[in-house]
Amino acid sequence: MYVSHPSIHPIEAPPLTDTAENALPRGRMEDIQGMPGTLGGLALRFVQFVFAVVSLCVMTTTSDFPSVTTFRYLVAAVSLQSLWSLSLAIADIYALLVKRCFRNSRVVCLFSIGDGITSTLTFAAACASAGITVLIGNDLDDCKENHCTRFETATAMAFLSWFAASPSFLLNFWTLASR
Amino acid sequence: MYVSHPSIHPIEAPPLTDTAENALPRGRMEDIQGMPGTLGGLALRFVQFVFAVVSLCVMTTTSDFPSVTTFRYLVAAVSLQSLWSLSLAIADIYALLVKRCFRNSRVVCLFSIGDGITSTLTFAAACASAGITVLIGNDLDDCKENHCTRFETATAMAFLSWFAASPSFLLNFWTLASR
Fold first, then answer.
1. Could you say which of A130, B32, B123, B155 has the lowest number of CB atoms within 10 Å?
2. Distance from B115 to chain A by nearest Cα, in Å?
3. Contact at 8 Å (CB) between A117 and A58?
4. For chain A, how many structural domains are there in total?
5. Does residue B17 belong to any structural domain of this protein?
6. Cα angle vertex A174, ends A168, A177, to 5°?
């Protein structure tokens, strides 16, 4: 009996689905709400911007803030925070309009570094102002001569702006690390 | 002329080596110096601990620190930082002695959260103290009655402790994200 022995055997292809399934979640960045280019990210930027601007306005309406170095620093820090948040909010709106997400590693790195710097500066300013408001209000009990309520409000708003900025930084950093 | 049309064509197997090369660095965690269980990590813990203890000692030797809430908070924060850094330094020494690295995801997560909390508290305390020392030294120019130099030294040491704690947090967070 003659049985053909073909030189070319059909090679069983390794299952591609498994590899693809494993590779895909690593290769592509999932759309976690809060990342740049998502609605959550835009909401975070908006919250950061609003709280930073409110903090800036409340602090600048007090007449004696320039006499304290820390309050001047707070004004500078929340100004920077509001400008940064506004810029990234505009970038997010553009990304949402053209229905694209920021996938470029360099862009995410830039956003991450910028978020890290601005949120650290805002937090530092908020902590320093909190230290001084506590000193004036509790330790020296000197609220009659000072605008304690306004200082406290500006400090609280700066803290809230930092609270909204931290998730942006952590999510960007996470995205950068998990690429 | 008769030409055979085999129903089963030899399928070219996709190169497996490329996938394996891409998969390996993602699967295993590389030993970056500074991660828990490495010599760099132990050095970072040691630096954190030393600066936190120096800050604590300098601040507690001033007689009037309990009158300022922020300075009491600084003492609490650097105490926590020194205890945390000492604990993780002991864990690092153990890991180096048995020549193993911390690879468990939960352990890295715990270290990351702990580092995040302690370093944030230390940074907040350092910023608040810096605000007050600047207020006393520059704005009120009242260094004759206060231990300005000691307050400034304690604040600077707390900042240095935070500087050493940040890489630990960022590296742990990076490790957690890149798993």
1. B32
2. 14
3. no
4. 1
5. no
6. 140
What's at B177, amino acid-wise? A
Tell me whether residues B173 and A178 touch, CB distance under 8 A: no
Q: Is residue A158 part of a domain?
A: yes
Examine residue A84 and state whether it is found in any structural domain, yes or no. yes
Sign of dihedral through CA atoms A74, A77, A83, A84? negative
Phi, psi of B63, rounded to the nearest 5 degrees: -75, -25
Write the residue in B125, B131, B170 that is nearest to A129 by C-beta.
Answer: B131
Q: Is residue B21 part of a domain?
A: no
**Token digits for A50?**
């609003």
Rounded to whole angstroms, how far apart are CA atoms A119 and A116? Answer: 5
User: Rounded to an integer, what is the distance from CA A128 to the centroid of its chain?
Assistant: 21
Tens digits of pLDDT across chain B (179 residues): 555 555 555 555 544 444 444 443 443 456 777 788 888 989 999 999 999 999 999 999 998 889 899 999 999 999 999 999 999 999 999 989 988 777 778 888 899 999 999 999 999 999 999 999 999 888 888 888 888 899 999 999 999 999 999 999 998 888 888 87
What whole-number distance in Å separates Cα of residue B114 and Cα of residue B107?
Answer: 10
> Mutation test of the interface with chain A: which of B7, B24, B70, choosing the one with the most A Cβ atoms within 10 A?
B70
ipTM of the complex: 0.78
What's this model's pTM, rounded to 2 decimal places? Answer: 0.80
Inter-chain touch A135–B132, beta carbons under 8 Å? yes
Residue B153 CA to its chain's centroid (Å)? 22
Residue from B108, B135, B171 whose CB has the most chain A CBs within 10 Å, to mutate: B135
> Which structure tokens are listed for B31?
């030993």
Domain that holds residue B58: 33-177
Task: Pick the residue from chain A with its C-alpha nearest to B15.
Answer: A14
Distances (CA, A) of A22 to A25, A105, B19, B70: 7, 21, 10, 51
Q: Is A33 helix (H, G, I), strand (E, B) or coil?
A: strand
